Hints:
Elements: H1 7-20, H2 29-45, H3 52-61, H4 63-83, H5 88-102, H6 105-108
Helix pairs in contact: 1-4, 2-4
Amino acid sequence: MERNIDLTEVTRDIVAFRDERDWKQFHNPKDLAISLVLEAGEVLEHFQWKNSEEMATHVESHKEDVADELSDTLYWVLLMANDLNIDLVAALEKKMEKNRAKYPADKARGSHKKYTEL
C-alpha cells in the first residue's frame, strides 16, 4: 500500500487548518514540542502493559485509533518543521546518511546494540 505523499501539500493543509482558527498565537516551539510528545504518549498508551500477542490483537481491533494518534503526531512534526523553517525531507536524508555511517549494515544487522558498542 505504497503511496507517494507531498509533504509540502500536507503541510499547507495543516497550516491552513491552524490559521483558519487563529491558533498560531499559541504555537511557540516549546508548546509545539510539548504537543508532539503528548501525542506520541497517546500512541504509546495503545501498547502499554500488553505482550506481543495482545499488541497484535489490539492493533487489529483499534487500527483507526492508532492511526489517529500517529496522524496527530505527524501533524505536530510537520507544523513544527514548518514554523522552524526546516526542510524535513532534506533533514531526513541527511540523518539517514549519519545513521548509515553509525550503523553499517554488516555490523548492525540483527543487533540492537548502540552504535558505540558495534
